[in-house]
Structure formats: C-alpha cells, structure tokens
Amino acid sequence: MAHLDDAWQVVECLTCLLLRKLIAKVVSVHNSCQLITCQTDLKKLKRSPQLVKMPRVSDLLGAHPLVSMLPAAVRAPLLSNTKENVKGHGAALYMEGLRATGIWIVSIGAVKWRSQRLSSRHSLHPIFSHGSTLGLYEVLTGKSCLCDMITDSLVRCFFIEAEKIDQLRQSDPSVEAFLWQESAAVIAKLLIPRVFERMTMQETRLLVSTGSAMNLYTKGEDIILEHNYIGILLEGTLKAENQNNIVPPGVLLPSSMDLELLGLQSSEMNHMDSCSAANSYQVEAQAARVIIFEVGRLFTEANGQRNQPGGSFSAEALQLSMEESTGEEQVIITVDSTNKLPLGDSSSGVTRGS
C-alpha cells in the first residue's frame, strides 16, 4: 500500500506540471493572437486612416453667442474679417499688461486665466470654456490686458481685430449695448470668481442680459447702493469718502455688505484695488458705466436654483450655501431679498444723487 501511495503522489505531481505547461501555452497562444490582431488592425488603420470631421468655420462662428446675436447686417462683414486659430495646450492668447489688439472667440476647448492685479487665488476654477469672448472689455475701453489667458487644452478659436470691433460698436447703439453686456459677463467672472465661476458662461451671459441693470451716470452724480445690491464699474472714475479714486474695472459694494458672500475676508480689502466698499460713490469723470446685480438673484443663479418665469423672488429670505475653498466646510448665508430688481428697471437697488 505504501508503494501505491508513493506512485499516486508521483502521478499527481506529473499531472500538475503538465497542467501548468498547458495553461502557460494556452495563455501564450492567446497573447500571440491578440498581438497579431492588434498588429493587423494597426496596419489597416495606417493603410486607411479614419477621417475626423471637423465642424465648418461658418457653423462654429454661427453657433457662438456673440456672433449669433448680432443683426445680420453687421454679422456678415464681421465674419469676413475673422482669423481662425488652433492653439495647443499652454499657448498664450494674450498677456497681462500688454495692449489689446483684438478679441478671441473660443469655439472649442478651454482657456485658463491668471493675474497679479486681480488675484486669481480667489478663484477655484479659473477657466473659460467654449462659447467665451475674451479681450472684448479691453478693446471697448482701450485698456491693457487685465490678465494672462493661457490655453488649458487644444483650442480652436477665432481672432477679430480691435479696429473691426470699433466699427461694429459704432454701427448701432443697441449693438454697443450688447457688446458691453458681453464684456461684463467675462469681467464678472474675473472680479467675483467665487460667485460667477459656479455658473456656466451661458448662465452668466443670461444673468447679465436679463437679471441686471446697466446704468450710465454723469459727472457729479452720487451712486448709493442698497444693502443687497452690488455693482461693477466698467467705465469712468468714481470717488468715495476716505478712498483713492476708483478706476475700472472694480467691484462696488455697499458699506454694510458681508464680504463672505463674495468669498472675501475684511482683511483682504486693503490689498485689493479692484474692490471697494462705501456708503456712496460720486462720479468724477464725464460719465460712468456701472452694472448692478441684486445679491439674492445673483446667489440663486449661482446655486443653480432657477426662479419662476417673470423674474420674481420669494419674499422670504433666501438661504444659500457656499462651499469654502477647502471644500470641506459649508457656510449658510441668509440673504434678504425683500427688495427686488425688476428686469429692465435700471433704478432699482440704486439711489441717484447730485
């Protein structure tokens, strides 16, 4: 019996060895077949590569909000003067401090911004995606570029010279007003990133066009913001008590504003020349252009809570949550929305004085 046990163990060992060799051979053959298949597919792809169909230039431009909203009479000449560009990752569209020579229409891809003056550290996601119009504010005002615009992916975009934009704005007052609104959508994201970066560019554009008031003030007028309104100075110079002249672009806050709403701390105000808080502002230049937002509407949109048709808000206070930059702590902020900004009413939320 002992001999039979030994013989059986020998048979088991031989069987295991044979199975291992058989499995290894099967795996080797399988891998070889896969490699042959991959090589065959690669040869076929090289002989007959698949074509990637790129959208036509006319389709890309026609789908961009800036172009599609323009009257047909001025759209055609503008399209004939656009220059198509394809930029790789890390390419500069323009750099902070340099003179603006034109605007960039981003059709495909993403662009990242950074700035010394505007302190991009307050931004969690400093990205402009497709559908953005970059450099328009600088062209309208003649200012140097506010920030660096660097591609964050492969970008297909179009460049329009500043001279053509000047001709466009002079063609019709309504066109100029539209260009200011389009530029304000980008400026809002640069100056108040912790609020506006939570919206898509299209949502920001819609809020600027239908949920804000673009006001013009003359020299000597006083601008008094109510406690639940904020403004962005786009053009002109203002003066506030115990402050230097306020130049555009800049955020205008009522003195009672809770800075945490904007993702700021009170200690940072002294180091930011793009943000001011005062009881009133007086126009120093011949004219000043200011866009006004109601805080309740602003944060409702930023939190993705769309209001009912007609633009009205609930009379109760809005409870809005904003995540801190760590992403771990959440602060609940109550915003009084009893004073509402009716769409198209340029006087709500602002008191004019002389």
TrEMBL record:
SUPFAM superfamilies per record: cAMP-binding domain-like (SSF51206)
Name this polypeptide is given: Cyclic nucleotide-binding domain-containing protein
Residue ranges annotated for the Cyclic nucleotide-binding domain, each copy included: 66-168
InterPro entries named among the record's database cross-references: cNMP-bd_dom, cNMP-bd_dom_sf, RmlC-like_jellyroll
Lineage: superkingdom: Eukaryota
